[in-house]
Design goal:
The protein has about 160 residues and is mostly helical. It contains 6 helices and no strands. Helix 2 runs antiparallel to helix 3. It is flat.
């Protein structure tokens, strides 16, 4: 248990140190690149599908995918490490460690602030139709649960319970 806590603290502290050095340039590039991609594809995203508006595009830029691709690529680098002089196994391990730290902190920062961005854009309220569907779903789930709970009395092993 102590080893687990120590490893967790080392992971968090290392992530803080890494992000302190990385946030200056890489984070800005990351958000700018998301803005460029969403901005360039906005007409297509608005026309196809259900129609993307500017509020949804803002949420897509702010939260979006927060590291799945980066972690997948770092795992690929780790798997390829050791096959050349430039990419040693230690470098591959450090690559995964640093990527994981950046992804972790991105999840913490973006994940914890997305609720406030949704509230600011007034996107945290349900429409009347969605509220009715949600209420109906809750009602049906409650009825099904009560029905299944009633059937437990017929079970030989649980009947006396």
């Amino acid at each position: 248990m102590v080893a687990y806590i120590a490893n967790t603290l080392i992971f968090i502290l290392s992530g803080v140190v890494i992000v302190e050095g990385v946030l200056g340039d890489d984070s800005v590039f990351h958000h700018v690149s998301k803005c460029i991609v969403v901005g360039a594809l906005f007409p297509l995203l608005r026309y196809f599908g259900y129609g993307l508006d500017w509020k949804e595009a803002s949420i897509l830029i702010w939260s979006g995918l927060r590291g799945a691709v980066a972690l997948s690529l770092s795992l690929s680098v780790k798997r390829s490490s050791g096959r050349s002089l430039e990419l040693t196994p230690e470098t591959g391990t450090l690559f995964i460690f640093f990527t994981g730290g950046i992804v972790f902190l991105t999840l913490i920062v973006n994940g914890s602030t997305t609720q406030f961005v949704l509230h600011y854009l007034d996107m945290d309220k349900l429409t009347a139709a969605k509220k009715r569907i949600l209420d109906f779903t809750k009602y049906e789930m409650l009825n099904k649960t009560l029905e299944d709970f009633g059937e437990l009395g017929d079970d030989e092993e649980l009947g006396e319970f």
